[in-house]
Amino acid sequence: MKTSLLALITFTFLLGFSPLTSALSIVAKEEAPYIGNELPSQGLSIEIINTALKRAGYKTSVAFETWPRTYEGGLIGIYDVIGSIWQTKDREKDFAFSDAYLFHEIKFIKRKADTEINFNSLTDLQGLIIGTLKNYAYREDFNNSRTIIKLPQNHLIQNLLFLTQDRIDMTLGDIRKVRFEINKYMKSSMKKLEFLPKALISRGVHIAVSKSNPKHAEIIAKFNKALDSIKKDGTYDAIIKKHDKSSL
């Protein structure tokens, strides 16, 4: 028995990970299909994070808050880890960021029947009515363009409905979120719509730990190492496949 325990400890040490002795609190804003208490495994993002942190030797707990409470709670140390955040120069002053564990691809979606519509540059969008989301951080030149007709709404589903009703020419959004919304609310329309191949922008998603946490560098380093490990052994791809069940 002692020999088996010693072997387990030695094996764990050689992997570079610790036994499950530390606990981390993760906070995130609910956003299906990535994060949500009612989603399978609490969503794609949370399953990746939990799997990597467990591999790194941590126990985890997850809390769901609004974005302002998520950001502030992570900043002042109410929570150890912000589970989903885009990295910016300004945020780097206060947070240490992991490697990207996912990428959010923002793509245009149109009716299949509109074969003349394409996107290679912003000039292709001139004269088209495009449904957007209010205060969404698209690409800066897209946001600032005065030659593109943008019709802002509060919710993605509104733009998708307008698209099926021929009230706009295109809309755009994160591809997984678009698929989730169509599957949930308007599955019968799925075969009538398609993504354009080129993404407007692709943004990496990270975990972040406040630099006021004395162990911020250690947590991020262990997460990155474990993330690499679950990618190499196929665990990461299995999680992605599990959640990416639908496609357009």
Low-confidence parts: 1-20
Mean pLDDT: 91
Quote the distance from N terminus to C terminus: 53 Å
- Helix-strand pattern: HEHEHEEEEHEHEHEHH
Radius of gyration: 21 Å
Fold and architecture overview:
There is one protein chain. 35% of the residues lie in helices and 26% in strands. The chain has helices spanning 2-15, 44-55, 67-76, 140-144, 156-164, 175-185, 216-232, 235-243, and strands spanning 22-28, 58-64, 81-85, 95-97, 102-111, 129-133, 149-153, 170-174, 193-210. Helix 4 links the parallel strand 6 (129-133) and strand 7 (149-153). Helix 2 packs across helix 7 (216-232). It is globular and about 55 Å long.
Keywords:
D-Maltodextrin-Binding Protein, domain 2, globular, 9 strands, disordered N terminus, alpha/beta, 8 helices, 35% helix, 26% strand, 248 residues, nine-stranded mixed beta sheet, 2 domains
What's a quick, concise take on this entry?
The protein is α/β, with parallel strands linked by helices and 248 residues long. It has helices at 2-15, 44-55, 67-76, 140-144, 156-164, 175-185, 216-232, 235-243; strands at 22-28, 58-64, 81-85, 95-97, 102-111, 129-133, 149-153, 170-174, 193-210. The longest helix is centred in the C-terminal third of the chain and has 17 residues, at 216-232.
Describe how the helices and strands are arranged:
Layout: H1 2-15, E1 22-28, H2 44-55, E2 58-64, H3 67-76, E3 81-85, E4 95-97, E5 102-111, E6 129-133, H4 140-144, E7 149-153, H5 156-164, E8 170-174, H6 175-185, E9 193-210, H7 216-232, H8 235-243
Parallel strand pairs: 1-2, 1-3, 6-7, 6-8
Antiparallel strand pairs: 3-9, 4-9, 5-8, 5-9
